């Protein structure tokens, strides 16, 4: 019996090993060039991925529409902290989201590569804007040594340049190219509703637009704005002249309010989101899926009533606005661009309806329904 038991044990072990080798051999590898220009060998259609930022869910939901959480085995808690409305919206539809481990920042010394290895992570998606941090922290090298593929995408630094290729890269990896192509067609169509008209507007007729980044997030501080990147670039492309583009190079910068008051821009747009849970004393406009028109107007009026702001032309002329901050890091930024276009050149874009666009985006491409408030103009 002892010999027979040992023989059966060898046969069982051989069967298990054969199964592992067959599974490994059947896992198809593909090669992609990510947005950082890196050539990456990655398993096609992985079942276990990690998001370097929770807000990458905005993009993933366009691809894995039936259940965007089915592959996620770890993420950062920025979605929970800085866009809790969206998190609760998804949580109601997919309760399993509550079980996803918060791995913290991939660029901190506390980030556990062991946790990724233990959870059999196959792919980690990181943001292009943190490429240098990933290199300097050593996390990139550690992940590569652990056999975990790292793919960089970008919806923040150069959104109009990198959104389409980023979605295509993610779709190739996740084997969701049809869903990506369908959304990209919608994206291009809606971007073109702006470009064709803007080309006909002379620069002399374009208004100067000031974007106040995270307006009122810290009530004691003012202000920050975007340069020629991100929302600043979206302003320039939607028929305005971004104030920050003229003042400094780069992604964003601090602003002396006195300089703003002297220049007196034609249009002012502050970004806002539900930061009240991460920053309880915030004065920001709490835009998002749970926002109400009344609450938005109350907080927008308070921002316009800050010392000196009431004398600005934008406030006096009904061109003081707010927009959902999270558009700055999402493939949905063309919706914000449509709002910018209407605010900058209302006559030329009279027929443009960004709310209808955003509702259609939800109806056709997302597993959650549309609700709340995502932009507004201060009522006179």
UniProtKB/TrEMBL annotation:
Give start and end of each Fe/B12 periplasmic-binding domain.
Answer: 48-352
Q: Which residues form the signal peptide?
A: 1-27
What domain of life is recorded for the organism?
Bacteria
Keywords from the named record = Signal
Coiled-coil ranges per the record? none
What Gene3D superfamilies does the record tag this protein with? Nitrogenase molybdenum iron protein domain (3.40.50.1980)
Cite the PANTHER family for this sequence.
MOLYBDATE-BINDING PROTEIN MOLA, VITAMIN B12-BINDING PROTEIN
Kindly provide the name given to this protein in its UniProt entry: ABC transporter substrate-binding protein
Give the originating organism. Roseibium algae
The organism that produces this protein has a lineage beginning with: Bacteria, Pseudomonadati, Pseudomonadota, Alphaproteobacteria, Hyphomicrobiales
């Amino acid at each position: 019996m002892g010999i027979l038991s040992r023989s059966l044990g060898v046969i069982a072990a051989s069967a298990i090993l054969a199964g592992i080798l067959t599974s490994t051999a059947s896992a198809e590898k593909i090669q992609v060039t990510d947005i950082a220009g890196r050539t990456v060998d990655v398993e096609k259609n992985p079942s276990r991925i990690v998001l370097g930022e929770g807000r990458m869910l905005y993009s993933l939901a366009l691809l894995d529409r039936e259940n965007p959480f089915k592959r996620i085995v770890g993420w950062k808690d920025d979605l929970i902290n800085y866009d809790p409305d969206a998190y609760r919206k998804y949580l109601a539809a997919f309760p399993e989201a509550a079980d996803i481990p918060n791995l913290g920042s991939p660029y901190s010394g506390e980030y556990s590569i062991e946790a990724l290895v233990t959870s059999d992570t196959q792919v980690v998606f990181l943001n292009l804007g943190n490429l240098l941090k990933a290199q300097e922290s050593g996390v990139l090298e550690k992940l590569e040594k652990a056999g975990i593929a790292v793919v960089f995408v970008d919806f923040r630094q150069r959104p109009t340049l990198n959104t389409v290729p980023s979605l295509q890269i993610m779709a190739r990896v996740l084997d969701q190219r049809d869903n990506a192509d369908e959304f990209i067609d919608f994206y291009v169509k809606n971007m073109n509703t702006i470009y064709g008209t803007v080309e006909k507007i002379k620069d002399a007729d374009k208004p100067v637009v000031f974007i106040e980044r995270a307006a009122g997030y810290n009530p004691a501080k003012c202000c920050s704005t975007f340069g020629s990147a991100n929302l600043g670039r979206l302003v320039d492309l939607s028929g305005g002249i971004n104030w920050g583009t003229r003042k400094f190079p780069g992604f964003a910068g601090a602003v002396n309010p006195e300089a703003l008051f002297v220049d007196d821009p034609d249009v002012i747009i502050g970004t806002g989101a539900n930061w009240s849970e991460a920053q309880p004393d915030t004065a920001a406009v709490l835009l998002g899926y749970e926002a109400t028109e009344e609450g938005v107007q109350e907080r927008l009026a308070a921002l316009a009533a800050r010392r000196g702001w009431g004398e600005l032309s934008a406030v006096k002329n009904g061109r003081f606005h707010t927009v959902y901050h999270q558009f700055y890091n999402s493939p949905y930024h063309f919706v914000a661009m449509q709002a910018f276009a209407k605010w900058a050149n209302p006559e030329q874009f009279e027929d443009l309806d960004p709310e209808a666009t955003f509702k259609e985006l939800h109806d056709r491409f997302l597993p959650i329904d549309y609700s709340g408030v995502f932009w507004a103009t201060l009522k006179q």
